[in-house]
């Protein structure tokens, strides 16, 4: 019986809905990454399971795990029968409910798991597995893309699970963790350094992509992603407790390590093709892990989630998660008239957000725009928020552009927020600068005082169009 959150259970479900492809014999050096990249751009991208990687007798790589409404619906336990819109609708309200329920689903320590089939302490080599070099100008081979890095708060013991890129170092004996300062895992690590001079860490490199979606999304600090995953699945997540660090590893993991980080124990890492669509700056020092133990299943599967110019591996997941969360958080502010929010994939699900409202009062559109740009779900690396009237679908870029082009006066309707939360990944950030950005709130609603007198939209009444289609369908279809 597979443990809860096993990647193999997920794969058999994906196979049943016809969205899994086997790819045999692709090279770890760029070829797996390039096949995945071509797949993301195809009309119906599938999940790809790479096996028989030349030079490797064991180890497989999965990409595209969450790249369709059906696969992401399965991942989030919302069912496989979804469109983009219906999936976001089904997700609405769930993140806060799951976060609230997480306390009822503490991890469940177990002593038996397929992960324990192979254990190595001492002579560890991560390059015994087919870790891809994903993009042509990456600085190395990144084993951590869809990974879950588990840390703990040294005061409260609460766990955090975060998804941070990890480059193999020292010919496979070590690995860097690139958690951006301020991310919860980075906060835990800093707190451990201050208290004990070292920080315990475990990492899982292959698991149900629910852990990728949750580890890769802003879950409130103090809520464990493993408990949150239990709330999503409706069952406590079985974990093995790593003996050196005392930290959990999901029992459903394919391959996992435990070890320690120490201040000053660093290696050069990067650059890496990132979710903004650009390589991340120059090679620079990041914390490296002293790995004390490695566990893996037979023929383990690495969960790959390489970013890049969108659409990339997890841009669809990010769009769905952020669209629902931004909508929910806007409604939770108590501001009325919120119709729909959409965090566009072309902006990596962060940079470009559209919100539709029913205008209720003067200043409403600006209020929504400024709030949306700073919500917890949006504050990191947002750049543009466009607020539109409810006749515009904010998920439709053509409609958004039409609204911006015809319902704004650029001199009046673009508000700038400055010194907001940026990232060192921002291609616009000069080398070495503090990672602020600025953001524009574009009020593309009809001006409140002209709502009644604004020129009519030149399109026929929907009822009349329906009647005409009924009569003239033969010449239209
Ligand atoms: C595949 C993937 C890779 C990511 N890589 C990084 C990374 O290298 N550094 C980082 O700080 N955040 C990265 N993120 C974003 C974080 O996972 C995200 O901000 C998450 O909320 C972090 O968890 P935390 O809020 O518990 O710190 C990545 C997300 C995904 C899905």
Total of helices: 13
In total, the number of strands is 21
Strand fraction equals: 15-25%
Structural class: alpha+beta
Write down the overall mean pLDDT: 97
> What hetero molecules are bound to the protein chains?
flavin mononucleotide
- Described by the principal axes of the CA atoms, the overall outline is globular
Low confidence ranges: none
- Mind telling me the C-alpha Rg? 23 Å
| CATH A-level architecture of the largest domain | Roll
Helix content percent band: 25-40%
Name of the CATH superfamily of the largest domain: Electron Transport, Fmn-binding Protein, Chain A
Query: Can you tell me the CATH topology of the largest domain?
Result: Pnp Oxidase, Chain A
Write up what this structure looks like.
With 477 residues, the protein is an alpha+beta fold. The protein has helices spanning 7-16, 31-40, 69-75, 84-91, 94-101, 184-196, 210-215, 225-233, 315-332, 364-374, 397-407, 410-413, 462-476, and strands at residues 20-24, 47-51, 60-63, 108-109, 118-121, 142-144, 148-152, 159-162, 166-169, 174-176, 199-204, 238-241, 248-250, 255-269, 284-296, 301-303, 338-343, 352-357, 384-389, 414-421, 436-443. It has two domains: 7-303, Roll (Pnp Oxidase, Chain A), CATH 2.30.110.10; 315-450, UbiD C-terminal domain-like. The model has no long low-confidence stretch (mean pLDDT 97). Flavin mononucleotide binds next to strand 8, helix 6 and helix 7.
Which terms summarize this structure?
alpha+beta, Pnp Oxidase, Chain A, UbiD C-terminal domain-like, 2 domains, nine-stranded antiparallel β-sheet, 13 helices, globular, binds flavin mononucleotide
């Amino acid at each position: 019986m597979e443990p809860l959150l096993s990647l193999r259970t997920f794969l058999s479900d994906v196979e049943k809905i016809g969205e899994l492809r086997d790819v045999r014999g692709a090279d770890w050096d760029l070829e797996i990454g390039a096949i995945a990249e071509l797949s993301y751009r195809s009309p119906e991208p599938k999940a790809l399971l790479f096996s028989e990687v030349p030079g490797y007798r064991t180890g497989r790589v999965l990409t595209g795990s969450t790249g369709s409404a059906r696969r992401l619906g399965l991942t989030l336990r919302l069912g496989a029968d979804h469109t983009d819109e219906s999936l976001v609708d089904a997700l609405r309200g769930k993140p806060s409910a799951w976060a609230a329920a997480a306390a009822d689903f503490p991890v469940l320590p177990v002593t038996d798991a397929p992960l324990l089939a192979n254990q190595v302490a001492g002579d560890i080599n991560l390059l015994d597995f087919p870790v891809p070099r994903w993009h042509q100008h990456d600085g190395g081979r990144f084993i951590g893309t869809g990974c879950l890095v588990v840390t703990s708060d040294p005061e409260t013991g609460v766990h955090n699970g975060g998804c941070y890129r990890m480059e193999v170092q020292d010919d496979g004996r070590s690995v860097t963790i690139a958690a951006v300062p301020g991310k919860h895992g980075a906060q835990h690590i800093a707190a451990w350094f201050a208290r004990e001079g070292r920080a315990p860490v475990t990492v899982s490199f292959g698991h149900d992509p629910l852990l990728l979606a949750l580890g890769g999304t802003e879950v409130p600090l103090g809520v464990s992603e493993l408990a949150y995953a239990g709330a999503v699945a409706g069952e406590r997540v079985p974990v093995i407790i790593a003996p050196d660090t005392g930290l959990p590893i999901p029992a459903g993991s394919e391959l996992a390590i435990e070890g320690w980080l120490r201040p000053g124990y660093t290696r050069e890492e990067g650059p890496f093709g990132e979710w903004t669509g650009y390589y991340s700056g120059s090679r620079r020092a990041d914390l490296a892990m002293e790995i004390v133990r490695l566990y893996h299943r037979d023929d383990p599967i690495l969960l790959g989630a390489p970013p890049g110019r969108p659409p990339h591996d997890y841009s669809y997941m990010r769009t769905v998660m952020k669209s629902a969360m931004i909508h929910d958080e806007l409604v939770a502010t108590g501001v009325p008239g919120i119709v729909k929010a959409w965090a566009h994939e072309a902006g990596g699900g962060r940079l470009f957000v559209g919100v539709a409202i029913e205008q209720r009062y003067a200043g409403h559109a600006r209020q929504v725009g400024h709030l949306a740009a700073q919500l917890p779900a949006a504050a990191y690396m947002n750049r543009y928020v466009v607020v539109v009237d409810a006749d515009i679908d904010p998920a439709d870029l053509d409609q958004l552009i039409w609204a911006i082009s015809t319902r704004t006066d650029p001199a009046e309707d673009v508000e700038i927020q400055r010194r907001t939360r940026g990232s060192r990944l921002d291609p616009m950030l000069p080398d070495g600068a503090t990672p602020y950005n600025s953001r524009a709130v574009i009020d593309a609603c009809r001006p409140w005082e002209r709502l009644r007198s604004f020129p009519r939209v030149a399109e026929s009444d929907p009822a009349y169009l329906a009647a005409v289609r009924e009569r003239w369908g033969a010449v239209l279809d």
